[in-house]
Amino acid sequence: LTLEGKTYQFPIVEGSEQEKAIDIAKLRDQTGYITIDAGYKNTGATKSAITFLDGEEGVLNYRGYSIEELAEKSSFLEVSYLLIYGELPTTQQLADFEYEIKTHTLVNEDMRKIFEGFPVNAHPMGVLSSLVSAMSAFYPENADQDPEEVTQLHIIRLLAKLPTIATWSYKKSQGHPVNYPKNDLDYCSNFLNMMFSLPVANYEVDPVVSAALNKLLILHADHEQNCSTSTVRLVGSSHANIYSSISSGISALWGPLHGGANQEVIEMLEAIRQDGGDTQKYIDMAKDKTSGFRLFGFGHRVYKNFDPRARIIKKAADDVLNKLGINDPVLEIAQQLEKAALEDEYFVSRKLYPNVDFYSGIIYRALGIPTNMFTVMFAIGRLPGWIAQWKEMRTNKEPIGRPRQVYTGAPKRAFIPI
Ligand code: MLT
Fold it and tell me: Which of 6, 11, 42, 83 sits a CA distance of 20 to 30 A from 66?
């Protein structure tokens, strides 16, 4: 084949100079050449200027700023602005952004009527994904408006309303009325107030709790092309509206192999505690493929080193529990498991280090967040990343996502009528 003045021989030998020289994407586009990569393990599905991730070194940057610095020095809305608009905001830009968000924290009362129809034991992620999808009906596009202004308004609405909606499931599970937003509070404190304040008792948001939540949300804000983010991009690539695209991301995040893992981790740690806390027994079971036991929270598709978020969360978990005077035996079990695994050849040779989900549930528990809300917290954190990725994909006018397949079914068969 001759393409753009270069000649290619088929089959292409793996590792050959020719293979290295080929822009596979271009070749696929022009020849129909297909390679299989189930789950897009190593195929870049897109180019992106948002998040840099080096899995070998354990480095994570948002728009060039290190996750360590952002988690230490920024507010979640500052990081959201950075991800979505590409630059850290000036003081005035941040104040305007915060103000805009505060003016949109209320949710259309008719959405509450939809919510009332959900059973009390519905998983909060199913409720969240449905209600975010419903937002497209309550906040439709207006054909007379400038499309950029409309998109900007949708972005603000999503950031403003997601925490409000997220608290409803919890309030219902407690048999309590929902709380309205309190706009004199910052983003995290407002969420905590809607979760925990009751009409009959004073509730003061603890600044330690609010600061810990701020850090957790920043650490979860983006993570390049993971399952939910690629879902948001793929759905959005058909020009589906932003609410449907984000709703599909929430559904993708729900699964135990993705955002649902932190719920699995805490349930696993709790089960180990109830079984007497013998961590070595569980390390041995994890190594024994016939045991059926899986050590949740260890290893990551991309990281062959420590997940940098896990390092920060581990320290934050220690600090928060100390400051709040909480002695959670599950934290000790987590620490013992980590120590045992990091000293064990089986885990070391497979580069199975603790990931972000391993410690996040322990902090959420300390903050009073119930286990079935852990993935919801992840979704609130990931929202600006999804929005940024959706916006980048649309701004770059990317084509509709359309993976090809390698057909493995029956060859052409003659139809013989019965
Ligand atoms: C994430 O933060 O999205 C998870 O670590 C999963 C991933 O990146 O694949």
Answer: 42
